[in-house]
Amino acid sequence: MKSVFLAILIFLVSLSVGFAQNADTTSTKKLVYKLNIKENIAPAIWRQTNQAFAEADSLNADLLLIHMNTYGGTVLDADSIRTKIINSKIPVYVFIDNNAASAGALISIACDSIFMRKGGSIGAATVVNQTGQKMPDKYQSYMRSIMRATAESHGGDTIITAQDTTFKWFRDPKIAEAMVDESVYIPGIIDTGKVLTFTPSEAVKYGFCEGIAEDVPEVLEQIGIKDYEITEYKPTGLEKIIGFLVNPFVSGILIMAILGGIYFEMQTPGIGFPLIIAIIAAFAYFAPLYLEGLAANWEILLFLVGLILIAVEIFVLPGFGVAGILGITLSFTGLFLSLLNNINFDFEGVHPDRIMTALMTVIVALFGGFTMSLIVSKYIFTAESGAFKNLSLHSVQKIEEGFVGVDTSSKNLVGKEGIAYTVLRPSGKVKIEGKIYDAVAELGMIDKGDPVKVVKAEAAQVYVEKP
User: Could you tell me the pTM of the whole model?
Assistant: First the structure.
């Protein structure tokens, strides 16, 4: 009997140990959230980073790993990303697959731990324009400041423990500053006249890298995480749409749609489908450029004011003059500048190739849109059949069939009397039976208010004399 109880007891103990082991296995599995930054730092990367951190937080991720390979990008977006990293409650590590230059270096230094692949590099954070030329010192001063501040945020004797692995942390702010300013001299590390860039081994030696790894699994192994699950950030549908719409070819198509919609709206009565197409195309053109930080408020406003001036010229003012020319100029300028990463009218940071691409995109699109509008309108509005055939006049009203181009009702006024509505010298206006008509005095001048009599009517105009 004792042996039976002993066997049951051993079974229960082994079962509880098994449950404990399973529970321990489940509890030690780490959720690693991975964000790829493998292109230039720009507003799109900042938006994606924001989304990635929000998703990682909602999933209660244990670690956020940035897989990086970038030559840099805009300082403001990089600063936003590094601030997000510094304030993150989730530990943020970065694996530099190849390059972490300029803005990429700033983001990397903000992370809790840096790992690099052999042959990689980190540094060269001098602020340059898109032609590679060094920007004025006001830009360098800002970059030096945030590089120092970022390094200082990880200064001291902070200890980071990941299971059995312990890293002793210290990032020298002066080294971070030397990555921006060639005038910084650090004995044994960098001479003046050179901007600092570290290889992986140098970065490890001077505290700017915690390890060298070949891939993400090796990074996690060095951290001490063996049992893990990786969830990777995937761009949202909106991000994919924005990326598609900012393509120069698509931008050109949208400009053609804007022009075509406005042109066809002018050919049809009232407000209809063509105007809706133009508005949708304008929104699709400017909205992604605005989100990308390219189209500023004032550039969009230039375009809208230009359209208003063109409309005033067409529908209000006679002929085509200053308002029309100014409207075309403003609309063209708004479309053109919205494609450039300029600051007001400062194009120092804009590559000449980018300027030419934007200029040709707008010129070709406008010319193509105008040409296609003329061609398409010929087939849409003059065809004998089609969806829009009733929007234009196809029949010919011939004179021999009794059609005339003037109003003949004035002939009925011959012999009737009225008064001069204005002075007739000899032309002016008369009032007959409560209606105003264009009139010509047959003899001399007739003063305003004098009685008149219609003696004949020709070409919708009456001829009068004093009775």
Answer: 0.62
- Sorted by sequence, the CB contacts under 8 Å of residue 131 that are 6+ apart come out as 351, 352
Instruction: Encode 248-274: b = buried (16+ Cβ within 10 Å), e = exposed.
Output: bebbbbbbbbbbbbbbbbeeeeeeeeb
- CA angle 319/321/326 to nearest 5° reads 140
CA dist 198 and 205 (Å) reads: 10
DSSP SS3 for 120: coil
Q: What does the pLDDT average to over 399-404? A: 54
Q: Which domains does the chain have, with CATH numbers?
A: 24-234 (3.90.226.10), 238-391 (no CATH), 399-465 (2.40.50.140)
Asked whether 293 and 74 are in contact (CB, 8 A), the reply is yes
CB atoms within 10 A of CB 165: 14
Residues 15-26 pLDDT 10s: 444 544 444 444
Q: What is the helix (H) or strand (E) element at residue 464, kind and residue range?
A: strand 461-465
The Cα–Cα gap between 181 and 177 comes to 6
Question: Is residue 121 within 8 Å of 100, Cβ to Cβ?
Answer: yes
Q: How many residues does the chain have?
A: 467
Phi-psi region of 332 (alpha: psi -120 to 50; beta: other; left: phi over 0): alpha
Handedness of CA 302, 304, 309, 313 (dihedral sign): positive
- DSSP conformational letter for 133: P
In a 3-state reduction of DSSP, which class is residue 328?
A: helix
pLDDT in tens, 151-172: 988 765 444 444 444 444 578 8
3-class SS letters over 228-263: EEEEECCCCHHHHHHHHHCCHHHHHHHHHHHHHHHH
Enter the tokens of residue 20: 């404990």
Which DSSP category does 122 fall into?
A: E
Q: Tell me if 310 sits within 8 A of 322, measured CB to CB.
A: no
Q: Using the structure block, give the residue that is written with the tokens 């799109």.
A: 44
- Is residue 65 within a helix (H) or strand (E), and if so which, with residue range? strand 63-70
